[in-house]
């Protein structure tokens, strides 16, 4: 394709596919040009540089999120739905966590989501800076929960690129970590319990448990005021 037949939308959607497959480290104009059957210079014409492309791709994935109708739902159901959808989106695009840490990201897709999030907590009864704090607290909780999945994908990809057996290396590392953990009584009890949980594994439903605890705290705070 030439720069005249390419569109920014095509480039961004293809960049997202490449990011999902290869991560931030695998995104470059040459690889993107090959997928688009286009010269890298034609890609640059539309998106200027890699940083701008990452910003555009990030904002596009934010548009995947549906915004619950606040007139039809109570604030807590809306907050739970939005947090769950955001967590699913970040897990679906594991490169996003790294992008948030290394790029200045903004755009109408993210702004649309942020505005609706504030509306949820204003409906709950938070005012001004308190609504900002509530929204930020839930966002950081979702982001923190998405880090584990993102890190596993990135580490596995890097180990495979280095020519190692990623699955075996991860298995051996978990075994070594578990051996060390057994030196400590509470970790040993957890490892040797009926569940047989891996040392680094999160308990089942930990996301739901944590989100519920946060929203319970919000309700208590609102009731106290």
Could you name the key traits of this structure?
single chain, 225 residues, mainly alpha, Arc Repressor Mutant, subunit A, Tetracycline Repressor, domain 2, 72% helix
Explain how this protein is built.
The protein has 225 residues and is mainly alpha-helical. It has two domains: 8-48, Homeodomain-like (Arc Repressor Mutant, subunit A); 62-224, Tetracycline Repressor, domain 2. The protein is 72% helix and 0% strand. It has helices at residues 8-22, 29-36, 40-47, 50-62, 75-92, 95-102, 108-124, 129-161, 166-181, 185-192, 206-224. Helix 1 (8-22) crosses helix 2 and helix 1 (8-22) crosses helix 4 (50-62). It starts with 7 loop residues before the first helix and ends with a helix.
Residue windows where pLDDT falls under 50 for at least 5 positions: none
CATH level-four homologous superfamily name of the largest domain:
Tetracycline Repressor, domain 2
Number of structural units classed as domains: 2
Give the proportion of residues in helices: over 70%
C-alpha Rg, in Å? Answer: 21 Å
Q: In sequence order, what are the helices and strands, one letter per element?
A: HHHHHHHHHHH
Secondary structure: number of strands: 0
> Overall 3D geometry?
flat
**Beta fraction of the residues?**
under 5%
Structural class estimated from helices and strands? mainly alpha
- Overall mean pLDDT: 88
How many helices? 11
| Spatial separation of the terminal alpha carbons | 61 Å
CATH topology of the largest domain: Tetracycline Repressor, domain 2
* Major sheet description: none
């Amino acid at each position: 394709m030439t720069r005249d037949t390419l569109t920014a939308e095509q480039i961004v959607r293809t960049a997202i596919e490449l990011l999902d497959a290869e991560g931030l480290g695998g995104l470059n104009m040459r690889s993107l040009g090959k997928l688009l059957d286009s010269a890298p210079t034609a890609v640059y014409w539309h998106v200027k540089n890699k940083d701008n492309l990452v910003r555009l791709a990030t904002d596009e994935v934010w548009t995947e999120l549906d915004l619950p109708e606040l007139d039809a739902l109570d604030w807590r159901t809306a907050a739970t739905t939005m947090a769950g959808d955001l967590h699913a989106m970040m897990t679906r695009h594991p490169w996003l966590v790294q992008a948030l840490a290394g790029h200045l990201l903004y755009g109408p897709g993210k702004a649309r989501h942020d505005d609706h999030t504030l509306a949820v907590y204003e409906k709950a009864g938070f005012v001004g800076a308190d609504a900002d704090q509530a929204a930020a607290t839930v966002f950081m909780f979702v982001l923190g929960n998405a880090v584990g999945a993102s890190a596993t994908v990135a580490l596995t990809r890097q180990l495979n690129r280095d020519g190692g057996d990623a699955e075996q290396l991860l298995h051996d590392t978990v075994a070594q970590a578990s051996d060390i953990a057994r030196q400590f009584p509470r970790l040993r009890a957890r490892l040797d319990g009926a569940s047989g949980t891996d040392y680094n594994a999160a308990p089942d439903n930990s996301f739901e448990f944590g989100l519920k605890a946060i929203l319970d705290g919000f309700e208590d705070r609102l009731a106290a005021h």
